[in-house]
Design goal:
This protein is an alpha/beta fold. It has a single domain, classed as Ribonuclease Z/Hydroxyacylglutathione hydrolase-like (Metallo-beta-lactamase, Chain A). It has six helices and 17 strands. The strands form three sheets. A seven-stranded mixed β-sheet has the order 8-5-4-3-2-1-17. A six-stranded mixed β-sheet has the order 9-10-13-14-15-16, covered by helices on one side. Strands 7-6-11-12 form a four-stranded antiparallel β-sheet, with no helix packed on it. The chain starts with a strand and ends with a strand.
Length: 276
């Protein structure tokens, strides 16, 4: 398995750009899955810098319905990706807002032009194999109080906005290694909680170890108490490779490096990871 970072909050390679967002191109058994699309600014530039185009992609998966993960869908559909299978939870296209003291910010994917109609939409609520050996978790219902979603994230259905339950939060997973004893897990933002996500994957696969954990963990601004709790619980999974991206936050990344040392990788836009 090879994972290219197409969009991340930082870049480490000349010719590539960074943005606040996440997009990963995952190649496995000769098939390519685009996991999230970032805001849409970095995707066309970085895909071209890798010598690739939308026609090289076999399917798209959306971790959840925020602009910094699905903002590139329109570009993708308009530049050769129209009709691709798009795996997403049905709530991913609800109207999302983030509350602040001054105003509400639109952070969703709703679009008057009908974004879903440009793809072969496949709704995912239960665990589902989307390409050979690559699975989406479906809804992650068993969560921890310590990983409660940010209360400023809301769903607006035309009346009083309500707290976002993030039922659409999906992670990708696959068996790893020659013996298949561990798993590789890829998260978008892990709004359900990164620990809850790993526990959910473990309940589906029976795996107790994690060969690689890659993605955003939504720990930017997390309290010291939550970081300690998260690290103590991540230790249970004997993680071999930890690649915190996007919304993890630099304080959390520093804490991971101090605890997990050389097992932490920090790929930027244009980098790639190879999973044996």
């Amino acid at each position: 398995m090879k994972i290219w970072v197409l969009s991340n909050n930082w870049t480490t390679r000349r010719g590539f750009v960074a943005e606040h967002g996440l997009s990963l191109l995952i190649e496995s058994d000769g098939r390519r899955l685009l996991f999230d699309t970032g805001q849409g600014f970095a995707l066309p530039i970085n895909l071209a810098a890798l010598g690739m185009k939308p026609q090289d992609i076999d399917a798209v998966a959306l971790s959840h319905g925020h602009w910094d993960h699905g903002g590139g869908l329109a570009w993708l559909a308009n530049n050769g990706g129209r009709g691709l299978p798009l795996f997403a939870h049905p709530m991913a296209f609800e109207r999302r807002i983030r509350r602040s003291e001054l105003s509400d910010h639109d952070i969703g994917l709703h679009e008057p032009g009908g974004l879903r109609e440009r793809f072969e939409m496949v709704e995912v609520t239960e665990p589902r194999e989307i390409l050979s050996g690559l699975w989406l978790t479906g809804e992650i219902s068993a969560r921890h109080e310590e990983e409660a979603p940010d209360p400023r994230h809301m769903i607006d259905r035309g009346h009083e906005p309500e707290p976002d339950p993030f039922r659409d939060d999906l992670a990708l997973f696959t068996r790893g290694g020659a013996g298949g004893q561990g798993v590789v897990v890829v998260t978008g933002c892990a709004h359900s909680g990164v620990v809850a996500t790993l526990e959910h994957v473990g309940s589906l696969t029976g795996a107790s170890t994690v060969e690689a954990l890659i993605g955003g963990f939504h720990l930017s601004g997390a309290s010291a108490e939550r970081l300690r709790w998260t690290i103590e619980n991540l230790r249970r999974f004997a993680i071999s490779l930890l690649a915190p991206l996007h919304c993890t936050g630099f304080t959390a990344i520093g804490a991971f490096q101090s605890v997990f040392g050389g097992r932490v990788a920090l790929p930027g836009s244009g980098d790639w990871l190879e999973i044996p």
